[in-house]
Write a structure and sequence with these properties.
With 196 residues, the protein is mainly alpha-helical. Helix content is 74%, strand content 0%. It folds into two domains: 47 residues, Arc Repressor Mutant, subunit A (Orthogonal Bundle), CATH 1.10.10; 128 residues, Tetracycline Repressor, domain 2, CATH 1.10.357. Helix 6 runs antiparallel to helix 7.
């Protein structure tokens, strides 16, 4: 039998549908008191951060990141990241949507969302640096701007819109995102010209 901490995390994940469950709801589902939940997680933010880490471990995020990092070049890393999104996102979609929705009104959800976002920005920055070393980033792009673009193109929301709303097959999503990122970063950034 798993530890109480693992049971709390498993139940929180199971209960996450369109919204993040309350500490009381989690306690009832696990069959423990709310105070017992707080013994393991001193705040709702701590629970949500631990939940995201729990899901990442369950979904083998570390192995997925190794695939991205060991791609033969920067372009391969962009493709590997898009492939990772195509594989993982269907399995974590409920949690990602719930955190995205809740983060605007719930500081605990916002903390968990920012933690994931910061990790993704670091990954995007490393890939941009690799692309730059490969000569695939135009000199007009700052590393921060290029990383921000890549971070957004390979975000959960873009995947959700392209695959679930626009009905792109997962393989086509990978091709479109990879081609878009590489083409955009290779092009100069120009100031818009005023209409005359």
């Amino acid at each position: 039998m798993s530890s109480t901490r693992d049971r709390i995390l498993d139940e929180t994940w199971r209960l996450t549908g369109t919204r993040i469950p309350s500490m009381s709801h989690v306690a009832r589902a696990v069959g423990i008191s709310r105070q017992a939940v707080y013994l393991h997680f001193p705040s709702r933010a701590a629970l949500l951060l631990a939940l995201v880490e729990h899901v990442d471990a369950h979904e083998n995020l570390a192995e997925e990141i190794v695939r991205v990092e060991t791609a033969p070049d920067g372009a391969g890393q962009v493709r590997a990241w898009a492939e990772m999104q195509a594989r993982r996102n269907p399995r974590i979609a409920t949690l990602a949507r719930a955190l995205d929705q809740a983060r605007r009104e719930d500081e605990a959800a916002a903390v968990a969302w920012r933690d994931r976002s910061q990790n993704r920005v670091r990954g995007a920055t490393a890939i941009v640096q690799r692309l730059r070393a490969d000569g695939r980033v135009h000199r007009d792009w700052s590393t921060d701007d290029a990383a921000a673009l890549l971070w957004e193109l390979v975000s959960f929301r873009v995947w959700d819109d392209l695959v679930n709303e626009a009905h792109l097959p997962p393989g086509r999503y990978v091709d479109v995102v990879t081609a878009t990122a590489l083409a955009a970063l290779a092009a100069p950034v120009q100031e818009p010209r005023p209409n005359r």
